[in-house]
Amino acid sequence: MNARASTPSLTASVDGEVLSRMVRTDQLVVVRRSVLTAIPINVALSFTATLVALNSGKAFEGLIWLLLSLAVNGLRSYICRWPIALAPGVVTEEGVAVSPTGRPVEWHLRMAAAMAAASGLVWALIPLLCNGYSSPQAVFYLTVVCGICAGSVTYGIAYAFVPISFITPALLSVVGCLLYAGGFDNVALAAMVLLYLGALARGALQSDKAFREGSRLKNEATALASQLRQVHALSLDATQQLAFRASHDSLTGLLNREGFTEAATLHIAARDGRQHGLLLLDLDGFKAVNDAFGHKIGDRVLQDVAGWLQRELTGMHATLGRWGGDEFAVLYTLRADRQAPTAIAQALIRSISFATAHYGGHLGVSIGISVAGDADIADMISFADEALYEAKRTGRNRFQMFDKALNHRLATRRDVERDLLHAIEARAIGVWYQPIMGCDGNEVHSLEALMRWHHPRHGQISPEEVIFAAANTGLAEPLLRHLVDEVCRGMRQMEATGSSLAAVPVAINVSPREMAQLAVDDIVLGMLKSRGIAPRRLQIEITEEVALDTHATRSRLSALSAAGVAIVVDDFGVGYSSLASLRSEYVRQVKIDRSFILGLSSSPGNVVLVDSIVQLGRSLNLQVVAEGVETQEELDALRALGCKLVQGYHLARPAPLVDVTAWASLRAVAAAAHATAPAAAGAA
């Protein structure tokens, strides 16, 4: 009840005017940082342009221009170090010069834009060094001007007026010179420069808007979290925390994992062989609450849910605990006068959204149920956890009883985990290949390597199950090394047999867990080097969330890309950051998720989405692959939209390497015969 009452006051206390000032301060801090980063590049390009001017006989003009450029850049650097006066209620990061006598943030932003315009005017004088872009050096100067303008937009994401003030005079100078020179080519080029100017300005404005929105959310969450931390600190009692630390969760006051296990063991032992019901609850949508409101609000949600469970289960003499994260465990003895576990689960699912409605109604709950009379608590937890996994796999707000089918699956997973190392060492885990075709259905553009393991007892094991087992058993790296080695062996085999597929690249999937926890760049590049395989022949498929993950993940992808390994964003369009993932400099290809391709010919909405992705990929110089093509109608629709690459069962199913190479050979023979037939007919 207290948590519900406190939430509105916290939200209301984030003053809109203060929040706006925080955003402007963030903009200024980032603008200063980007300007100080860009100035050395500007100076280096200035010296280069001057050297070209000296070499072309424009020594006097070049030196005067260089002095102007250095003066403006020096002044910009000096101004960026002036202290600023923060508005009331605004704080900024460490290292920023702050003084009560300094100029306000808005003044500094206007000055930054003015100095950017001054620098742009200096670059607008470049025509003096190349006779109005008519000398042999014109291409060099035009390239430098366009490049530095693009760079200013790239660096100036926080405040659009800075890059716009810089690029406008610089590019308008180019346009003016080209129009003055006349001629169709020059006029056309001037038009393209104007279009380029407009595109850069639009990009700067969009980046500005995105930055302000991100800054607003960050500062709002920071303010809310700061206030909630104070309330939370006052509500905690240090004495109780020490007393319950060994067996209770400090956040919710419930039994923790160890405490629950011990209490549940005693609970079962005291009931003389009666049946017991164990429910494992996992909150659906809890991550979204954390992302939207911050971890402190998330902690408050967990506390409210814990209190609500205690009230709902009053009178059942149940053992209740927080199992970990956003999971809770409930154990009680089955009796005739008590509800069955399934009925309790249904009641909990119906009630959870009401219990957390003051947080926006984002939460649901998935429940796994285990009922046993003679099993120990460890087995019951294992059974309930398997049922919970199945409930979450089939959707949110569901419950699942542990049954024979789940018992078989649990046994399968245990066998898979037990046998995985031997399967890797014995090369029982193989690779099948599925071609990625040109939209005409004739040319094989590349291959996707797909993991296959036929378990001696359980048959075909899905790649997801294998990866999950590898993560649980610490075999993720050996598995990745094995798969890369299998792909390298396949490449060598195609070369040795003279297959028509010998030159096509092969893509291998890397899971988010592998990319986050393993040195994938070192592993892959090291194995390619040891096998004598050129990096350009391998592609790495990742999800779009991985493309925007931690700094370590991005650095690994950058290293792979720099070595020549193409990075492919798989399942594009279904993640939370689709467009942002394409801004990564290492992404070379995107694969449209199959959900957008299914029934494409009869889905106007999907047609619009796919067309947008194709056009976006073309504008960003990215290859676009449509995966999951299963009908001729879908293929025809993709051709009409200009999608160049396709993949799916309609074109070719995954198959072992020997079958894929044989298939490719037959297609090559058929294509040659088809090409020869018209010539023979003409000769006759």
SSE blueprint and pairings:
Layout: H1 2-12, H2 16-55, H3 59-79, E1 84-85, E2 103-104, H4 105-124, H5 138-155, H6 161-181, H7 184-235, H8 238-244, H9 257-269, E3 276-284, H10 286-293, H11 295-312, E4 319-324, E5 327-333, H12 341-355, E6 364-372, H13 377-393, E7 399-401, H14 404-425, E8 429-438, E9 444-455, E10 459-461, H15 463-473, H16 476-496, E11 506-509, H17 512-517, H18 520-531, E12 538-543, H19 544-547, H20 551-563, E13 566-572, H21 578-581, E14 587-592, H22 594-597, H23 604-619, E15 623-627, H24 632-641, E16 645-647, E17 655-656, H25 657-683
Parallel strand pairs: 1-2, 6-7, 9-11, 11-12, 12-13, 13-14, 14-15, 15-16
Antiparallel strand pairs: 3-5, 3-6, 4-5, 8-9, 8-16, 8-17, 9-10
Helix pairs in contact: 2-3, 2-4, 2-5, 2-7, 3-4, 4-6, 5-6, 5-7, 6-7, 10-11, 13-14, 14-15, 16-18, 18-20
Domain EAL: 413-668
Domain GGDEF: 274-404
Keywords: Membrane, Transmembrane, Transmembrane helix
